[in-house]
Amino acid sequence: MLRVDPVLFEQVLFNLIDNAAKYAPEDTTITIRGWKDGDAIMLSVADEGSGIPPNDLERIFDSFYRVRKGDHVRAGTGLGLSICRGFVEAMGGTITAANHHGGSGGLFTVRMPVPKNPPILGENE
Ligand SMILES: Nc1ncnc2c1ncn2[C@@H]1O[C@H](COP(=O)(O)OP(=O)(O)OP(=O)(O)O)[C@@H](O)[C@H]1O
Ligand SMILES: [Mg+2]
Predict the structure, then answer these.
(1) Could you please report the per-residue DSSP string of the chain?
(2) Whose CA is nearest to atom 17 of ligand 1?
């Protein structure tokens, strides 16, 4: 069990899936994975687009930063990922960008630490 703000968490997922749908070609697959890694829950969104240039992997989380000139023909402001990072960090997690090992496509990973005293469903606070 994780303790997250559901509205913020949904917005994070929405922004990542919106990007995958926007920057990868039509009819390609978006893969969403979740797993446990030690004391954290991991969640990744991967696409089959052209990925992110290595020098931009950190900068894409800056406000208003867009990688390619051509990205400006697509609707957007360059705020989605900076909002994702702000929300994930506000909930105690981290978010990173990478490219698929040995293939094309972006890979975004959210890491949320599991609280030491996990919440119990139905318990009043
Ligand atoms: N899945 C992806 N594949 C390739 N490039 C990406 C991907 N996701 C983001 N980017 C690059 O990172 C930039 C920043 O993404 P971000 O979501 O912050 O802004 P946006 O999608 O341009 O606009 P907004 O999210 O505000 O509608 C994008 O403009 C694009 O250049
Ligand atoms: Mg976006």
Answers:
(1) -----HHHHHHHHHHHHHHHHHHSPTT---EEEEEEETTEEEEEEE-SS----GGGTTGGGSTT--S-GGGGGSS--S-HHHHHHHHHHHTT-EEEEEE-TTS-SEEEEEEEEPPSS---TT---
(2) 80
Domain containing residue 33: CATH number: 3.30.565.10
Q: Which range of residues forms the domain containing residue 104?
A: 6-113
The domain total for the chain is 1
Choose which residue among 14, 17, 23, 61 to substitute to test ligand 1 binding: the one with the highest number of ligand atoms within 8 A of its C-beta.
23
Full pLDDT tens readout for the chain, 125 residues: 888 999 999 999 999 999 999 999 999 999 999 999 999 999 999 999 999 999 999 999 999 998 876 666 677 889 999 999 999 999 999 999 999 877 789 999 999 999 888 667 776 65
17 Cβ closer than 6 Å to some ligand 1 atom: no
Residue nearest to atom 28 of ligand 1 (CA): 66
- pTM value is 0.92
